[in-house]
Automatic annotation (TrEMBL):
Name of the protein: RING finger protein 151-like isoform X1
Bilayer-crossing regions: none
Region of interest (Disordered), residue spans: 274-294
SMART domains in the record: RING (SM00184)
Segments forming domain TRAF-type: 101-144
Pfam family, one: zf-C3HC4_2
Single GO BP term: regulation of canonical NF-kappaB signal transduction
Lineage: Eukaryota, Metazoa, Chordata, Craniata, Vertebrata
Alphabetized InterPro entries for the sequence: Znf_RING, Znf_RING/FYVE/PHD, Znf_RING_CS, Znf_TRAF
Keywords per UniProt: Coiled coil, Metal-binding, Zinc, Zinc-finger
Entry coiled-coil feature ranges: 224-254
Compositionally biased spans, kind Basic and acidic residues: 274-285
Zinc fingers, TRAF-type class: 101-144
Length: 294
């Protein structure tokens, strides 16, 4: 809204008046049709209308522009009385500085700064009201540290207040301890479940490892038995070969040529049978090794 014309000193040019509120322009904006408005007035108008309030031409916010400089200069040169003139303020200010003055005017009404106090006084009388305000708060003069209101000064009991505070602190401490205990118990239960699961997994792994070790020991024992058997067979074949060799040497030295050939043929037959046994023993050992590895 614009400024009231009655507050101004002397004549106010009609070009400096808002076309909506008919007051002196405040934060002025101008339409393309050169009509001027207070910023708050034209914003409120365009919420419900889409034209100029004077000539009804199409108008929106994007079409508004700042007031001409010469008109702004005329506004700034205007003099007007403080709004608190009826209460005794005689200050006359320029338009651009009147708001700053009115925010600090000693005759202006302000609310009491004490919480809950509805009283409004002139700024110059605020200190006197605060000294006698019933809702004035201050620190206890007896040293307990509590903040007391002026109306409660006589009823204030330091011991009762401190006892009440102690009870509240104790209740709060018990609550926090119980909360911490519940959280700790929950964490312990979670860790306990995790450890039980991990122990079960480890037990299963131990059982599997024992089974594998048992299989390996069985395979090793089988290999040892097969090796012993093969060793015995090889020793026996070695002895047979030695006997065969000796018999061949004896036959060569004691028999005729025909008999020697027959004896040699017989000895070769025995030698082939020994080699077959040896090959059979090797294949048997390979089977044992293959079964133990699988």
């Amino acid at each position: 809204m614009g400024y009231d014309i009655e507050r101004f000193v002397g004549y106010v040019n009609e070009g400096l008046l808002c076309c909506i509120c008919q007051g002196v322009l405040k934060d002025p904006l101008q339409a393309p049709c050169e009509h001027a408005f207070c910023a708050s007035c034209i914003h409120g108008w365009l919420v419900y209308h889409s034209n100029c309030p004077e000539d009804r031409q199409t108008l929106n916010m994007s079409m508004l522009r700042p007031l001409y400089r010469y008109m702004r200069n005329d506004l700034n040169r205007l003099q007007l009385h403080c709004r608190n003139g009826e209460r005794g303020c005689e200050m006359v200010c320029s338009l651009e500085s009147v708001e700053q003055h009115e925010r600090e005017c000693e005759y202006g009404w302000i609310s009491c700064t004490n919480t809950g106090c509805p009283v409004q006084v002139e700024r110059r009388n605020l200190s006197g009201h605060l000294a006698a305000c019933e809702l004035r708060s201050q620190e206890c003069p007896k040293g307990c540290g509590y903040t007391v209101f002026n109306s409660e000064d006589m009823q204030h009991n330091c011991i009762a207040e401190l006892r009440s505070e102690l009870v509240m602190l104790r209740v709060e401490m018990v609550y926090r301890m119980e909360k911490a205990a519940r959280e700790m118990s929950s964490r312990l239960d979670s860790h306990r479940q995790h450890m039980v699961q991990k122990e079960s997994l480890l037990q299963n792994e131990v059982v599997e490892l024992k089974r594998q070790v048992f299989q390996m020991m069985s395979s090793v024992q089988s290999l040892i038995g097969a090796e012993r058997l093969l060793h015995q067979e090889l020793e026996q074949e070695k002895q047979e070969l030695m006997e065969l060799k000796k018999s061949l040497q004896d036959c060569r030295s004691t028999t005729a040529d025909g008999n020697e050939k027959l004896t040699s043929l017989h000895s070769l037959t025995r030698l082939e049978s020994v080699e077959k046994k040896t090959q059979g023993g090797d294949s048997h050992l390979k089977k044992v090794l293959h079964s133990s590895s699988t």
